[in-house]
Design brief:
heterodimer, A: 168 residues, alpha/beta, Rossmann fold, two-stranded antiparallel ribbon, 23% helix, 26% strand, B: 663 residues, mainly beta, Maltoporin, Chain A, 9 helices
Chain lengths: 168, 663
């Protein structure tokens, strides 16, 4: 048993990595005062692609002194206690209405469906070259009154998208 | 959540394959963005650790099946044997031993058991929730006793309704069928206080159905038309980010009838006659879920369930009170532990003065239980689950129901699993304390032969030792396959033991033939199930499945039961189905379901096929119009034999139209 070399580690599961990225994002975001205290809610809307990976990754690791709580919501449900909202690709058709309802709320919206930032989402997790890449929509972040750290911005592709053509 | 937690192996449905979780949790954002990933579908992740034969019927399957009753929905799960006896009675089982009172499958609705232990079985006509409110039905083939306890011998059917947060707004539907049946549903949901995000979500429904009667084999009316009224509510309230409270309840009233015989054993002197059957009942359930900061969670649930049923002229009452505690946490990197405690009080009875006598007429018995289950990650992609339930019941005392399960996922796309379990069915009140005349027959002028069945207070639990193995794979994004095989050893199965006839000189003089409930049956069953899911194009999906079952029932040499095998072995040896879902356009769906079951080995039920077809149009965003044809292949056919005095009627070809409006 002892001498056998360990089997080659397989590449990591996409959603295990994305779960860890989601958790990590919180470190680089400052929320406005009304959302800056209490447990930090990471919410998943629609079909949950993470499974327990997300719960595992946040377990026992407070971020900036705040406890992290994972919550799951069905489409159409009121999103409460959320600081980061991940909108799964199952909600592709409802993306606009979900983003509309979150508009002007201090919430970091994250998604991985194509065109997420174009529709007004804040952070898109794109898969390119078998790696997870970040695209950040600064205009959406400003509307949500979120301060993103320069370190985060340096790791991401930046876009400015007003989203869904509403007049503001 | 709770229902998933009840089955720790089902937790796997929520779990990923767990590569280097710790490493990822500690990685910096830069490292994460440089980590190479493989893209896998949710399905693979969900099933990778599940070491059991599970089939999940989702809301989309429910909607597109065109089924109007819960029993018809269950037909789509492979290996589930659904046979309609008459318009309001069904025989439903998994992996054999089907009967009006199939006693080896446990059925739960949101964690509330609807299996009636006093006679061991399920009154399917009591279960009439709006099918639109079901989130999913988890059908587990094989024993689930180590978590769910006694009577989860051949399987568990776990019906989970939608959270009230998912059913805001209104829904109105109306349907009518070609035999005069009608169905109407009104549902509305909201939040209290209105407009708040943090309030308690609620929904309430009222439903009325009139189900047309079906004909007896000779074509005459079966007298089994019925109507039902059902109302209920569910409320879900997130008290805090860590706590949620669920409250749900319902009330129903059924007014039906059936063609029945006077005696249990068929004779030429006993033509069927119509008998009223009516039932009314209700339930109330409260559950509190708490999530701890580390991800551990715990729940406390209490429910009350009662009904009164006039069946075969006997008014039967049932009352159940249940308290259930459950806790789930991870211990270290490798252990995922679930444990729980339960207490239940069961009151059942028949008031004295009726044909069937129970001794004592009304009785309350307690049931205590505890379970523990540990899922251990023993190596990369290899999980071992060990656990047992321990129960104390009023008839056989302590019972233990252990299991061991192993899941190996060598790649993200495939899983091998195996399991060994012991499960029991505890004796029912009826088996321990019944006294009923089964047949009175004149054998000579002035002399009756009276065959009676008597309960046996010393009866043992039926026992199963079960071995299962399975393989699941997601070949490509479009093709998945699930294979299962099982070998099951049953002993102490129920028999009817005869004593020598005794002449009783009373008035009138008669021959007394006493049968006593016994435990002298054994059976070795084996078989398997295969289910394929194939997305032929992005708009067309087909799901074929096949199941095979062999039952070899024997009685101990000391047994006098000559007929037990007839009932015990009465299951189709082969069943096949194929479901097709076609999105003709964004607004139009056309779906088909074809079922086929082989003839029953010892009965007169021939092989039969059933074809259902559904066309549904979406008119605007809020309205759907559907037309469904059921049993299209033949004008009428019989699915199950005469059973428990019920003459049984024939399922007819029918068409119904339904309009659903949401607002």
């Amino acid at each position: 048993m002892g001498a056998a070399p360990p089997p080659p580690a397989p590449a990591a599961n996409e959603y295990e990595v994305k779960a860890a990225v989601l958790d990590n994002l919180a470190k680089f975001v400052d929320w406005p005062p009304e959302a800056a205290t209490g447990p930090l809610g990471i919410c998943v809307v629609g079909q949950d692609p993470f499974g327990r990976a997300l719960d595992d990754v946040v377990r026992g690791k407070p971020i900036n002194g705040r406890e992290v709580v994972v919550k799951r919501f069905k489409p159409g449900q009121e999103l409460t206690g959320c600081h980061i909202v991940f909108i799964g690709s199952s909600e592709k058709n409802k993306l606009r209405s979900i983003l509309d309802r979150l508009d002007n709320r201090p919430v970091l919206t994250v998604g991985d469906m194509p065109g997420f930032c174009d529709e007004g989402g804040t952070v898109s997790l794109d898969l390119a070259d078998n790696r997870v890449g970040l695209t950040i929509n600064l205009q959406a972040a400003e509307r949500a009154r979120l301060q993103l750290s320069s370190k985060l911005l340096s790791l991401a592709t930046i876009v400015h998208k007003g989203g869904h053509g509403t007049l503001r | 959540m709770r229902n998933l937690l009840k089955a720790p192996w089902l937790l796997a449905l929520l779990a990923t394959s767990g590569w280097c979780q710790n490493k990822l949790a500690e990685a910096s954002l830069e490292q994460l963005l440089n980590t190479e990933v493989t893209s896998v579908s949710k399905k693979e992740q969900k099933l990778s650790r599940t070491a059991a034969a599970v089939f999940v019927i989702g809301q989309d399957d429910i909607r597109r099946s065109g089924a109007t009753s819960l029993p018809d929905l269950l037909r789509m799960a492979p290996g589930v044997d659904v046979a309609q006896i008459d318009a309001n009675a069904w025989a439903i089982t998994i992996r054999g031993f089907n009967s009006r009172y199939s006693n080896k499958v446990l059925v739960l609705i949101d964690g509330r058991s609807v299996y009636t232990p006093s006679f061991s079985g399920v009154d399917w006509d009591h279960l009439d929730m709006p099918l639109e409110d079901i989130e999913r039905i988890e059908v587990i083939r094989g024993p689930g006793a180590s978590v769910w306890g006694a009577n989860a011998v051949n399987g568990v059917i776990n019906i989970i309704t939608k959270n009230a947060k998912a059913t805001r707004g209104g829904l109105v539907s109306a349907a009518a069928d070609s035999h005069g049946g009608t169905d109407g549903l009104v549902r509305y949901g909201g939040v209290v206080p209105a407009g708040s995000g943090d309030g308690a979500a609620w929904r309430a429904f009222a439903k009325y159905s009139r189900i047309a009667g079906m004909p007896l084999p000779d074509g005459s009316p079966g007298g089994d038309a019925w109507s039902r009224v059902h109302g209920g509510f569910r409320s879900d309230w997130d008290i805090s980010p860590y706590d949620s409270l669920t409250l749900e309840g319902d009330l129903f009233s059924n007014d039906s009838g059936q063609s029945r015989h006077r005696w249990f054993y068929p004779t030429n002197f006993d033509p069927p006659f119509r008998q009223d059957v009516d039932a009314a009942g209700g339930s109330l359930l409260a559950r509190w879920d708490h999530t701890f900061a580390g991800g551990a969670n715990t729940s406390l649930q209490a429910y009350y369930d009662t009904y009164r049923r006039n069946d075969m002229g006997e008014p039967e009452i049932q009352r159940t009170m249940d308290l259930d505690f459950q806790d789930h946490f991870a211990a270290g990197d490798r252990h995922d532990i679930v444990w729980g405690l339960g207490a239940r009080s069961l009151t059942s009875g028949l008031p004295p003065g009726y044909e069937v006598a129970l001794t004592p007429p009304i009785k309350t018995v307690p049931l205590f239980s505890a379970f523990f289950q540990d899922e251990v990650r023993v190596a990369h992609a290899l999980w071992l689950t060990l656990g047992s339930k321990v129960e104390h019941n009023a008839y056989t005392g302590f019972e233990y129901e252990p299991n061991v399960r192993l899941a190996w996922a060598p790649t993200y796309r495939q899983t091998f699993w195996a399991a060994a379990s012991r499960a029991i069915r505890q004796p029912s009140r009826e088996e321990t304390g019944v006294d009923i005349d089964l047949l009175e027959l004149p054998v000579a002028p002035g002399l009756l032969a009276v065959t009676r069945l008597q309960g046996n207070p010393h009866i043992q639990s039926e026992e199963l030792r079960d071995y299962e193995a399975g393989y699941r794979t997601q070949w490509t994004r479009r093709v998945s396959l699930d294979l299962t095989t099982f070998l099951s050893f049953y002993r102490h199965l129920g028999t009817e033991e005869t004593a020598a006839p005794v002449f009783v000189p009373g008035l009138p003089p008669h021959l007394d033939i006493a049968l006593t409930v016994g435990n002298k049956g054994r059976s070795v069953n084996y078989g398997g199930e295969a289910a394929l899911n194939l997305s032929v194009t992005s708009r067309w999906r087909i799901s074929p499945s096949y199941s095979q079952l062999h039952i070899n029932f024997r009685v101990d040499p000391s047994s006098t039961d000559q007929q037990g095998f007839v009932l015990a072995e009465d299951a189709p040896r082969h069943m096949f189905q194929i479901r097709s879902f076609w999105n003709v356009s964004r607004k139009l769906e056309w779906d088909h379901t074809l079922y086929w079951a082989q003839s029953l080995p010892h009965e007169t039920i021939p092989s039969h096929a059933r074809l259902d077809s559904r066309i549904a149009w979406k008119v605007g965003e809020r309205t759907e119009i559907g037309v469904v044809g059921q049993n299209l292949l033949r004008p009428r056919f019989r699915e199950f034999e005469e059973t428990f005095q019920i003459a049984g009627t024939e399922v007819e070809r029918s068409v119904y139209g339904k309009i659903t409006w949401t607002f």
